[in-house]
Write a structure and sequence with these properties.
heterodimer; A: 327 residues; alpha/beta; Rossmann fold; Alpha-Beta Plaits; 2 domains; six-stranded mixed sheet; four-stranded antiparallel sheet; 12 helices; 14 strands; B: 234 residues; mainly alpha; binds adenosine-5'-diphosphate; binds magnesium ion
């Protein structure tokens, strides 16, 4: 449905996007994740025909955006980072303008009413856009993208600046739209992407650093053989006790005395070995009470941080390993 | 194109801009009408048309200044430029909106003719000829203003820039008349908007002038499309 191939965009000598490729299938929600300045908006502006790429191609349903722009644009609803609102118009006037601009053929009144109901702006439809709150403006921006019912939706950070309740509502709406639209959603907030998307493309400094299904990324991240525990006892003693567990690679004292007489440890065993029972038994044999045990899987957040701030590009799982226990 | 035309046309009346322009148009033309016709008992109002050149040179830039610059500044160009429409239809929609306001202003000119016809015999041909001439001149000012507003995000700069170009058009005429008669002067005066316009107000309406005015309008519309196209590659 959406095909991006070796896309590069340079502003003068500055490369904003460098050789990125990804695809999104029909009815898939693709998350485009990256910190500010990563090149998300630039990519989306190219996809929607607002900017031209320096190299590479972008196709919507097989139609190249540069070769047949009008035809490709017909299939796209775009919500840019800053909603493109005419502040002097009322919401309804604006949506009617967009309807005319997109040469939409659907029955105007019922179509616009449906959209207003969907994004919950019916109660402000006769207000001048200038006077709306940020949350409502964002929704009017989303409504604008939905006019004409395009099969592809490209949404650039649609939840920025909204309050938590609005964020949850918008996410739920996007999820719903994803059932019968192909959606590309950009964000610099990981949980948002995790909550909504089927597929995640992580981009940093103009380069794709990870591209996988949300499930796969999460799976790569989990690791039962890596534990964080807190228990009583002198740390040197505990360390010695646990180090001799078969399959144990490393015992690392993370923090001494997190509570009175309690320290926190990272345990790193060989992949595939389950050390939880043995750890518990050995501590019990010395009467060292175990106060906490959890697998030390990184949240996507930590991985993301590492990928995007560190200099490790490429394999996510690899950077996960590097991150663990190297405190 | 029609959607953009409608929006921009309406915007002239949701802000004071449209009213202000029309008020200025009517006030100045009314004043000139009084000075050159009513107060001296003449029915020749071509001086009114000639004087309007100066007024419009200054005030049409107000009409056109925000047409494209404001879209860029408010990022509403991300809507229009990603909509399934051609750049030309966007440019034409904007042009026609400002031009329609201008034409509403010009519509007052034949009214002066009717006013005079109530107490004197009026020859209508020069009035209609002049009116068409003014409409053509307006087309040039509007297309220049639209072009300049595509170059900047700042409407003040757009207004000043297009005023400056209009001023150059006027100065080009002064330059022409300062030149010795000869080939160069002929060439310059044939491409001088002001000298062609003053010919029309003198009752000389040639086909070549018509073609000239229409061509200049299209050149600036074309340049505007090119600017928008170019911006994508920035
Ligand atoms: N018009 C421009 N001229 C020069 N550099 C730009 C321009 N637009 C964006 N950039 C640069 O390109 C990079 C990517 O920007 P952007 O796509 O907006 O990132 P994101 O949306 O991920 O925050 C940034 O470093 C930004 O400074
Ligand atoms: Mg951005």
């Amino acid at each position: 449905m959406i095909e991006v191939k070796n896309l590069t965009k340079r502003y003068g000598s500055k490369t904003a996007v460098s050789n990125i490729s990804f695809t999104a299938e029909e009815s898939e929600i693709l998350g485009f994740l990256g910190p500010n300045g990563a090149g998300k908006s630039t990519t989306m502006n190219i996809l929607t025909g607002y900017l031209s790429s320096t190299e590479g191609e972008a196709k919507i349903n097989g139609i190249d955006i540069l070769e047949e722009p009008v035809k490709a644009k017909q299939m796209i609803g775009y919500l840019p980072e800053q909603p493109p609102l005419y502040l002097d118009m009322t919401v309804m006037e604006y949506l009617k303008f967009v309807y005319g601009l997109k040469k939409c053929k659907l029955p105007i009144n019922s179509h616009l009413k449906e959209i207003c109901d969907l994004v919950k702006i019916t109660d402000v439809k006769d207000r001048v856009i200038k006077n709306l709150s940020k949350g409502y403006k964002q929704r009017v921006g989303l409504a604008q993208a939905l006019v004409g019912n395009p099969p592809v939706l490209i949404l650039d950070e649609p939840t920025v600046g909204l309050d938590p309740k609005q964020i949850i509502e918008i996410r739920a709406l996007i999820k719903k739209l994803g059932k019968n639209h192909t959606v590309i959603l950009s964000s610099h907030i990981l949980p948002e992407i995790q909550a909504v998307c089927d597929k995640i493309v992580i981009i940093n400094r103009g380069k794709v650093v990870a591209n996988d299904s949300a499930d796969n990324l999460a799976r790569n991240m989990s690791a039962d053989h890596k534990l964080v525990i807190r228990c009583e006892g002198a740390s040197t003693d505990v360390k010695k006790l646990l180090s001799s567990i078969p399959g144990m690679d490393e015992v690392f004292v993370n923090r001494e005395n997190v509570e009175e007489g309690v320290s926190e440890y990272f345990l790193n065993a060989k992949p595939g070995t389950d050390i939880r029972r043995e750890v518990s038994k050995r501590l019990a044999s010395r009467n060292y009470t175990l106060l906490m045990m959890k697998s030390s899987e990184l949240t996507l957040e930590e991985v993301f941080l590492k990928i995007t701030t560190g200099d490790i590009y490429g394999n996510v799982a690899d950077s996960v390993d590097k991150l663990k226990f190297t405190k | 194109m029609f959607a953009i035309f409608k929006r921009e046309f309406r915007a002239y009346f949701t802000s004071p801009l449209g009213y202000v322009f029309l008020a200025i148009f009517y006030a100045f033309s009314g004043l000139f009408f009084y000075i050159f016709a009513l107060s001296v008992g003449s029915t020749d109002i071509s001086s009114v048309f000639l004087m309007m050149f100066m007024v419009l040179m200054v005030f049409v830039p107000l009409l056109t200044m925000r047409l494209l610059s404001e879209d860029k500044k408010q990022k509403t160009d991300q809507l229009t430029l990603t909509a399934p429409v051609s750049l030309l239809s966007i440019v034409m929609g904007k042009f026609l909106a400002a031009y329609a306001i201008f034409a509403i202003g010009v519509a007052v000119m034949p009214v002066y003719g009717f006013v005079m016809s109530t107490f004197a015999k009026v020859s209508w041909l020069p009035i209609w000829g002049n009116t068409v001439g003014l409409l053509l001149l307006g087309g040039i000012f509007v297309s220049i203003g639209l072009f300049v507003s595509s170059l900047t995000e700042n409407q003040m700069i757009a207004a000043i820039g297009s005023f400056f170009i209009n001023l150059m058009i006027l100065l080009m005429n002064t330059l022409t008349s300062a030149l010795p008669t000869g080939f160069l002067q002929d060439v310059l005066s044939s491409i001088s908007v002001y000298s062609r316009y003053s010919q029309i107000t003198n009752g000389i309406f040639s086909l070549s002038s018509l073609i000239f005015f229409v061509s200049v309008i299209f050149i600036f519309l074309f340049l505007t499309v090119r600017v928008l196209e170019k911006r994508r590659w920035a």
